[in-house]
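Reagents: none. Just compute today. ATP synthase subunit b.
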Amino acid sequence: MNLNATMFVQYIVFFILCYVIAKFVWPPVVGALDARAKKIAEGLAAADQGKLAMVAAEKRIQTELAGARDEGQKRIADAEKRAQMVADEIKANATAEAGRIVAQAKADADQQVNKAREELRSQVAALAVKGAEQILKREVNATAHADLLSQLATEL
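Predicted 3D structure written out:
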């Protein structure tokens, strides 16, 4: 065989092989590579959008947390004000109740003092009658001298 003819046949086979590969093999491979590159690009774009969404969500969360903290502080301040108002009201009620109890105790004490005075007056009157009886060595009639005894009791 001739070297030139072999080389020529190899050229033809090579060009046919290149044509078959270019026509039937290369487009699906290139299509698969393009699809893969497109999928990777979409994935990267989605990741970037996800990062942006995450940053926006973090900002929104921070603002909501700050709002919640402010509202919590406001509620705590309102609760403290209400507690102070209730405490002041309880103190005022306790002071009024204490004043009422003291006034009632004073009234009871005055009533007991008056009762003790009346009892003491009656006892003094009885002692005066006994003393006068002993002095006069005779019995003084208490009913007959009731006016005199009541006058004596008022003087005491």
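The two ends are 171 Å apart (CA to CA).
Action item: order primers for follow-up constructs.
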